[in-house]
Amino acid sequence: MLRNDLLIFDSKGIFCPPAQVYLDPWKPVKRAIITHGHSDHARFGHQYYLTHHSNIPILRHRLGNIRVQGVDWGQTFLINGVSFSLQPAGHIVGSSQVRVEYGGEVWVFTGDYKNEPDGVAEPYRPIKCDTMITECTFGIPAFKWKPQHQVFDEINSWWQGNREEGRTSVLFGYTLGKAQRILKYLDPSIGTIYTHGAVENMTEVLRPQLELPTTVLVTKDIPKKELAGNLVIAPPSAHGSSWMRKFVPYETATCSGWMAFRGARARRATDRGFVLSDHCDWSGLLDSIRSSGAERVICTHGYTDIFSRYLREIGYEASVENTGYEGEKDESESQLQTNGG
């Protein structure tokens, strides 16, 4: 990128030279603005963190006793004369976009984002800018999400069917974000909702901010017969582990945008796949870029080459930058431990 760019990509992360601050750096730095709590964006080892207030409990849970300051949505703060503010990204609880303004130019770093309101995360807000840095995790036309109420009707119907046949329903979703979104829309009248320890711990961190149904932590003391017909929310890393033996007979399902591909369910060897993502689909990405008014778009993590090429075809100045971000992947327990969680 050019030397006079407001944000540049270096070996540590996305850097703002005049402010001497990084956005979601993937290597330790002195000052970091953090968009959200997923482990590829919120790393251990920075000297000073700044994020939205609602993300602070998540960061402390995962990273320990860090030096962190919180700001409100839309609150302007200056760093060495550069104006910053955070706006909702709609990805998960506490997820932000970063607006950066300096010398009459406005850039927006979206972090991870979703423009479909889900009733859990603060809804995405478009930000007018000159340059937009966007993820494109699902940046090909094959990805098109159903309205989430249809997906949750399918999930609850699946659970009800398993209950009638005496099987435990085990539903896999990421510990932070996806698990709480699933929990929000499960029908507790069907049965008891149980949780894996990693899901339960994160959910307890977020309960003060959310209205969620009661859950029961799975422990070795719970009789197997009490689990039959009920539902368990677990991280993808639990699939295939010895922990699953307690639920036999069971049926498994995965909630992920990747379930839009038939082969994805087979690769994960689950019985069902529900297409539910905390990222934009193809149309959502394009709508968000149009609403920003940006002329220049920088694409990171995902289908970057395909998406940027399409943007150039329709008149945008679009390019690709490599980052340490991973998009929607299995956030395994080993990753959580690495990041202090």
Automatic annotation (TrEMBL):
<dbReference type="InterPro" id="IPR036866">
    <property type="entry name" value="RibonucZ/Hydroxyglut_hydro"/>
</dbReference>
<keyword id="KW-0540">Nuclease</keyword>
<dbReference type="InterPro" id="IPR050698">
    <property type="entry name" value="MBL"/>
</dbReference>
<dbReference type="InterPro" id="IPR026360">
    <property type="entry name" value="Xnuc_lig_assoc"/>
</dbReference>
<dbReference type="GO" id="GO:0004527">
    <property type="term" value="F:exonuclease activity"/>
</dbReference>
<keyword id="KW-0378">Hydrolase</keyword>
<keyword id="KW-0436">Ligase</keyword>
<feature type="region of interest" description="Disordered">
    <location>
        <begin position="322"/>
        <end position="341"/>
    </location>
</feature>
<keyword id="KW-0269">Exonuclease</keyword>
<protein>
    <submittedName>
        <fullName>Ligase-associated DNA damage response exonuclease</fullName>
        <ecNumber>3.1.-.-</ecNumber>
    </submittedName>
</protein>
<dbReference type="GO" id="GO:0016874">
    <property type="term" value="F:ligase activity"/>
</dbReference>
